[in-house]
Amino acid sequence: MDLTLFTIQLLNGLQLGLLLFLVASGLTLVFGILDFVNLAHASLYMLGAFICASFTLWLGNFVWGVLLALPVTALVGLVVERVVARPLYARDHLDQVLATFGLILVIDTAAQLIWGPAGIAVPLPDWLEGQVQIGAVTLPSFRLLIIGAGLMAAAGLFWLVNYTRLGMLIRAGASNRTMVSALGIDIQSLFALVFALGATLAGLAGMLIAPITEASIGMGNSVIITAFVVIIVGGIGSMKGAFIAALMIGLIDTLGRSFLDDIFKLVMSTEAAETSAPAISAMLIYIIMAAVLAFKPSGLFPPKVR
Amino acid sequence: MTRIATLALLASVASTAVLANEAKIGFVTTLTTGAAVIGNDMKNAVDLAIEHLDGKAGDTTIEVIFGDDGFAPETGKQVTDKLVKQDDVDFVAGYIWSHVLLASRKTVLDADKFLISANAGPSQIAGKLCDPNFFSTSWQNDQTPMAMGEVLNRQGVKSLYVMAPNYAAGKDMVAGVERTFEGEIVGKDLTKWGADAQLDFSAELAKAKASGADGIFVFYPGAAGGAFIRQYDQAGLKDTLPLYSVFTVDALSLPKLEEADFQAVLGSRTTQQWDPTLDNAANQKFVTDFKAKYGTYPSYYAAQSYDAIMLIASAIEAVGGDMDDKDGLRAALKAADFDSVRGEFSFGTNNMPVQDFYLREVVTDDDGTWTTKVVETVYDNAVDPYAADCKMK
C-alpha cells in the first residue's frame, strides 16, 4: 500500500463524500426543517442529470448545460413542492413516504418516455476530459472539478444558513415553526424556497455525476439510500452533521473498496479474502450506521432544539 | 410437393386427437430500470423473428408473452411462475441475467416445459444442473472471456488486472479468463451489482493503475459498460493500461458513445460468438431488416433472441405443432436444425452451443456509424469447460 495510491484514494473518497453531501444536504434540509420525508429526492437528482444532459447535447457545452439546468431543476422542485409536498405537510410520515415513492415511479416512467430507457452519455469539453498531475498524484480533471464544486456548494450553504436572513429564518423554522409564523413570516414561501434549494442541490449532484456514470433511469435510487444513511449518521436536520457524515461515509466506502481485500489477505486465504471483501465493503457503511446509532441514537450532531 | 405436405398434415391430424394449433412462448427479459435498453433490443429481435416467420411455425400460430424481470432474481422468478402456471406457455425463453435464470429455472423445468436461454449462461446450468429440457442460444459464461484470455496470450500480455460485477456471471467471467490466460493476475475487483449497482469506479481504476499491469480485463454489460469506458478514458489509462473487454462494448453502448463523440472506444477489441458482419444469408437478412425496422445495429442480445425464436419455431414445425409430443420437441430442439445467424452450430451434451468465437474490433461503417467487425477467429467449435460435469449423455 504505497502513499501515492492512498492519497489518490483519499481524494476519490473526498469526491464521493462531497457528492453525497450535495444530495444529503437537501434531504436533511427538507426532512429537518419541513419535517417531510422526500423519497423523490432521488428523482430530482436523476432529473438534474437528464435535464443537464439534454442542454449539454443541445448547446454542445457542459458548463452552459449545468448553468441552464440548475434553475430548471429548481423550478421542478417548486412544482413538486406545490403539487405533492404541500398538501402532505400535516400528514404523518408514512403517507409522505407512500406519496413520494409513487412520485419516484411516476418520474422514472416519465423520464423513460421522454429520454428513452438507454440513458444519455454526457460529453465533456476537452479541458475537463484530461488529467491533472500534482506531484506523483494523477487525477482526472473532472473529478477535481467535482471536489471544487462540492466544496464551493458546501461553503455557500454554510454561509447561507449561518450568515443570512434567509438562513436565520431556516434555522428558526427548524427550531419552532409555529413561533416563526406567529412572528409574521410567510412560512409557506419559506418552505417552498427550502424545498427548491434542496432540489437544486440534488440536481447539481446528478449533473456532476452524469459525465462519469451517464444519466440513466433510476440512477438516484442507490444514492438516496446512502444519503439517508448520511443524514441518520450525521443527525437529522443538521447541516454540519450531513457534511461530516457524508465525507466520512465517502471515505469509508472508497477506502473499504480499495484496501479491504489486501487487509483481509493478511488474516485469511487469498480466495476467502477475494470472496468476502466485496461483500463486506458493500455492507461497511451500514455497519458504521448501526455502530453510530448504538452509541448516539440521534446521530453524531443532532440539532440542538427539536 | 403440395400433396406431400397435405398428406403430412393429414397424418399429423390423424396422429393426435386434438391438434394444438397454437404454441405459446413466454419471453422473460428486463423491460424496466436502466437495463431495459437490453430488454427492448431483445424484444425487438423477437418481434422481427415473429414477423419473418409470419407469426407461424409450419401451421402452428406462435404467440409470445413478454415478462419483465426488473433486473432482480425475485421478480424474475415471479414472472416465470406466472408464465408457467397462469399462461401455461410451452416454452420459456429469454433471460439476460445469470442470477435471474438460476432463480427461475426450477419453475420451468419442474413443470416439464422447455427453457431456452437467449443470453445468460451460468456455469451451474452447463454443469451439475444441466437438464434435458434446457437449451441455450448464447454461450456458457466462461467461454467468451476464455477466448479473450487466449487473445491476450497471443498478444503477449504478461500481467492483467481484472474487474467484474459481483454476481453469478461476473464470477464466471473472471473464472473464464483465469482459465486460459497464462500470465499473472495482479489484481481483481468484484463490484456491487443489481438495480443499485456501483457505477463509479474511481477507487478500482486507481488500484488498477497502481498495480502496473500490462492490461485490464473487464466485464460490464449494459449501462455500466458505457460508464466504465468513460471513466477509463477520463483516468487517462488508454496508453498505459490497454482495455480488453467482454460484453461491455456492444451495439447498445456504441450509439450513445458515438453521440457523445467518444473516440477512445474506436479500435477497442472484444470477443464474441456473433457479429453483424458474419457472412451468412440468415445473418444478412436479420441485420438488414433489423436496421431497416429499428434504425440501429442489432446487439448480440438481439441476435441470440432471434435465434431462440427460430430454434423454437424449427422444433414446433418438426413435430407438426403437436405440443404434447415432448420427446419429439426435445429431439428437434437438440438437432438445432435452423439457419442460425451465427452460422452452423450444434448442441453439446449439456445443450450448450458448440460454436466458433471471434475477435471483434470497433470500427466505423460505410455510413459513419460505429459498429464492430470480425478480426479473426479465436476458437473453432469450442466446447464449454463444464460439459464434463453434466451427467446427461
Automatic annotation (TrEMBL), chain B:
Gene Ontology BP term (one): amino acid transport
UniProt KW Coiled coil keyword: no
Leucine-binding protein domain mapped to chain residues: 23-365
Protein name: ABC transporter substrate-binding protein
Organism the protein comes from: Marinibacterium profundimaris
Alphabetical list of PANTHER family matching this protein: LEUCINE-SPECIFIC-BINDING PROTEIN, PERIPLASMIC BINDING PROTEIN OF ABC TRANSPORTER FOR NATURAL AMINO ACIDS
UniProt family annotation: Belongs to the leucine-binding protein family.
Signal peptide residues on this chain, from the entry's feature table: 1-20
Keywords: Amino-acid transport, Signal, Transport
Keyword Translocase on entry: no
Any Pfam family hit: Peripla_BP_6
